[in-house]
């Protein structure tokens, strides 16, 4: 596969969405749009966490919608601290607070009064907010990280597909994608070579380049959720560990 300039990652990361949110503290339309985009992209990990703590699937879906509605309706993200760094940590801490608030609200209503607390302070990277009083808390945390990692991979794969489509290489990408997703049990490199009209040696080189580009796309996607690009390697290691 000829790796053209249009398929190469930039030498340095551009300004990321989470950085835009942090710098503007949520005041500007740009920051609000960036936060909305991030929340939409990472809906699945939040739903997985809430679902783990909520027996009914419909109730979990309603709670997830309510969580994001509250988060996005805030006029400012004053609690968003650059030192927290990772959008993943911010979001996990925020959803823990939200569920704790909802439980407290339910308890107050059963006792006959009180109004819901709407705190979304997420804590920090090392202490991501209030811990739920649940003996199985590590379970939902792990599921959140696993869903997060899968979302990152899916978004990186979609970005890579779009790049190849724009370069007129969609058929080649579709033929070689199984070597990115691990779906090669019934497909050989010889089969792929016949599909796209290359010899097997060329296919081996193409797969190597595609895997390298996929890793770059994953790093770029991770960079969208960090305020400090020096954290990319550590975050990549953590996300891959979540899938192991």
How would you sum up this structure, described in words?
The chain is an all-alpha fold. It has one domain. It has 11 helices and no strands. The N terminus is likely disordered.
How would you describe this structure in keywords?
244 residues; mainly alpha; 11 helices; elongated
Rough outline: elongated
Task: Quickly count the domains.
Answer: 1
Radius of gyration: 21 Å
- The count of β-strands is 0
What structural category arises from helix and sheet content?
mainly alpha
- Overall pLDDT level: 81
Biggest β-sheet: count, sense, barrel? Answer: none
Ends distance: 30 Å
Separate helix tally: 11
What helical percentage do the residues reach? 55-70%
Brief overview, please?
The chain is mostly helical and 244 residues long. The chain has helices at residues 17-24, 29-41, 43-53, 57-73, 87-110, 138-166, 170-176, 178-181, 189-196, 200-223, 232-243. It is elongated.
Describe how the helices and strands are arranged.
Blueprint: H1 17-24, H2 29-41, H3 43-53, H4 57-73, H5 87-110, H6 138-166, H7 170-176, H8 178-181, H9 189-196, H10 200-223, H11 232-243
Helix pairs in contact: 1-2, 3-4, 3-6, 6-7, 6-10, 6-11, 9-10, 10-11
